Amino acid sequence: MARRRRQEEHENHERWLVSYADFITLLFAFFVVMYSISSVNDGKYRVLSNTLTEAFVTATKSDDPIQVGEELRSLEPQIGELAISQPQDDSSLSDPLADEQRGGSQVDTKTLDAIQGELSEAFSEYTDQGLVNVTRTARGVEVEMKSNMLFESGSARLSREALKALRKVILIVKPVSNLINVEGHTDNVPISTVSFPSNWELSAARSASVVHYFAKLGVDSSRMAAIGYGEHRPLSSNDTDEGRRNNRRVNLLIMSQELGEDGETLPPGQGDFE
Question: Can you tell me the distance from the alpha carbon of 6 to that of 8, in angstroms, rounded to the nearest whole number?
């Protein structure tokens, strides 16, 4: 048998092409990923950013009232706030007036002058700070409360300071039968968010939040009304920061009219309480 001659294997000098091709493929994939990361949907990013900001800011509220120079419209409330945000649970609140009523004792009648005196005394601390003003008007007793002690900027959610202040009002007005109007006012700085397309909605939502809280702590819902005036009833000129601060407010009006047992509105002095 003829011996087959073994040929010398030919050495391949082009093996580097395989590694080079793999490297080019990986490099191409890397740049594709980098390009996709850099193409961010600005609209979706802003919605996510605002939602996270609102969630974390709300969770870290301070007990101190928030002093602001002007209404900031940068934070858009969560969509859930479209239905007016409910205040925190105050089921543990000790209400001596409710305890008296449950015990069947007769609560003393109060005149509007007496109500004004009690409110003035209860809010003396806030009055000294220029946050609350209690006056007697032709319509009744009016408690003017600045918005920066009640709400975050651009929000209708009651702050901790607001809950503390409003409880003082509730303890005074709960046992009487006078009608209560809650009137929301803003400055003329435009607002346009998912929850509040204009200042009409913001002012109405703020007054409704106060009414909801009163009802939650036992004030008869049929006695109350929530009204939003927007920027259309200013106290001061909106041309200055100070004027805009004065115009951002919520007025609680304890009216001279009373609610009768059958739900009808009675003239002053005709109800159970004068």
Answer: 6
Domain borders along the chain are: 110-274
Dist. CA 90–CA 116, nearest whole Å: 25
Alpha-carbon distance values, 170 to 15, 44, 84, 103, 254 (Å)? 87, 43, 20, 19, 11
Residues in the chain, total = 274
The CATH classification number of 110-274 equals 3.30.1330.60
* 126-147 pLDDT, tens digit each: 999 999 999 999 889 999 999 9
The string of pLDDT tens digits covering residues 66-123 is: 443 344 344 344 334 433 444 444 444 445 444 444 433 333 457 899 999 999 999 9
pTM for the model:
0.58
Q: How many angstroms separate the Cα of 200 from the Cα of each of 16, 68, 106, 183, 274? A: 72, 21, 41, 11, 34
